[in-house]
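A common beginner's mistake is to predict each chain separately and then try to dock the pieces by hand. The better habit, illustrated here, is to supply every component at once so that their relative placement is modeled jointly.
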Amino acid sequence: MKIACAQFVPAYRDTATNLEQIRKFVHGAEADLIVLPELALTGYFFQTKDEIAPLAETLDGALATSLSHIAEAEQKAVITGFLERDGDRFYNSALAFDAHGKLAGKYRKLHLFYYETQIFERGNIGFPVFSLSTTSGVAKVGMLICYDWRYPEAARVLALQGAELIAMPSNIVTTTGMLLTTLQTRAFENKVALAFADRIGSESLASESLASESLASESLASESLNFRGSSAIVDMNGRILAQASEDKEEIIVAEIDLSKTRNKRINPFNDIFSDRPSTGYGL
Amino acid sequence: MKIACAQFVPAYRDTATNLEQIRKFVHGAEADLIVLPELALTGYFFQTKDEIAPLAETLDGALATSLSHIAEAEQKAVITGFLERDGDRFYNSALAFDAHGKLAGKYRKLHLFYYETQIFERGNIGFPVFSLSTTSGVAKVGMLICYDWRYPEAARVLALQGAELIAMPSNIVTTTGMLLTTLQTRAFENKVALAFADRIGSESLASESLASESLASESLASESLNFRGSSAIVDMNGRILAQASEDKEEIIVAEIDLSKTRNKRINPFNDIFSDRPSTGYGL
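With all components supplied together, the output reads:
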């Protein structure tokens, strides 16, 4: 299966422009599955629910419908971050459309980062694994979003449910230097492939937000976030198969035989999953 | 606190020689705590219980008593792998002696590797965290052994119990290339320090073992294991502070302020431990 990650600058609060960018990337990527960044349709840096309310949509809304049409028209599976509305609640979600345009999977980010804690609800559907049809066959896929990268439990729960590929729409701002090291470890420790689609560029609050009375203080309002790019596709042995720059718009592609991830055996006596105690670890 | 890892070739089945090697390393290391490899008193590569029965000792036996005396005489804390007997059962254990020579902690390896599965019982005391007195203060310590490196759950359970340092007596034979990457991730994802003491050299079955009728086949008997060295001391940010070679006898030392590991906060909104769901992950 050919897997692509599209790395770009989502236009801030401009869903129409971002839909067209996504259409372009899905069309241009020579791949069966294209993974896009977190909140790829809206931009990322919001501090209040008032700011995101006009941008959030339900899964039967115009944006999700357009994404479905893009996948169907291009006959490619598409995974993207999505600012989801559910009544008066908002979730930092990821959606997966199969090559027929069908919504095959959804994840609501569980580990919320920074101001996300003020505007999104914590994900309440666990870590689902689903079958994703592509023109090169069906993949068992799980999704994580950005800050989930720090939590070995998240990737583990997906892998134990049979995920062969973890797709990670992200908007990473970390300066720890441990990002790729950790992603390699996540793939290796679970023997799964990993497609990490990150954004580039930076975001400060827009002028209309600066004028909003709902902002707590000017010092917060003037804050700016720099995104780290470095999108990567990692195989089940922790090897980086494709790697993007930190600051350029790029599509990276790698071909992976996902069926190999199903074998967790490393020698005649050890299987990294069945060697876990049947009672679990209490985590 | 100054932490050392001693990397060497344990003499195969020669506990007297290994006690003297350990005494020399503990004496020579300019450190408050010295970590030694897995099964450092006996050597590693055994295939049957008949082979290890004459080498295994209880914790009130002569070997553990000698280790206690070494720690007390040098006023240094000592952590070492230990082939433990408990009735007619055997455990691949790690023991921690404090700077007064008191046995402060014990761990029985839970994830057994390769032929260990045939001769040792799976560890049955979980992942204990204990207070270890040194001449530079008290450290909260947990221990893991070798193959445990692949299991994020093991380090996580220790860190959630308050471990500031994870000591890892090991006899690593992996050729994956992911060893140090994974150890860095273990430290980073838990914000704990890590002291990984590995052995060097290789072991085949000794001639007396080759003659034993208890061996399953000659093809097994002729097998040889190569150990990877690369002992390392890693800080809570995943940085390697000290690193040994793959094949030389060495003592590596690093000074770490373990109190910093107690703060799991990374920004005003996020704490990597309290951001975990209170319900856990079902792992």
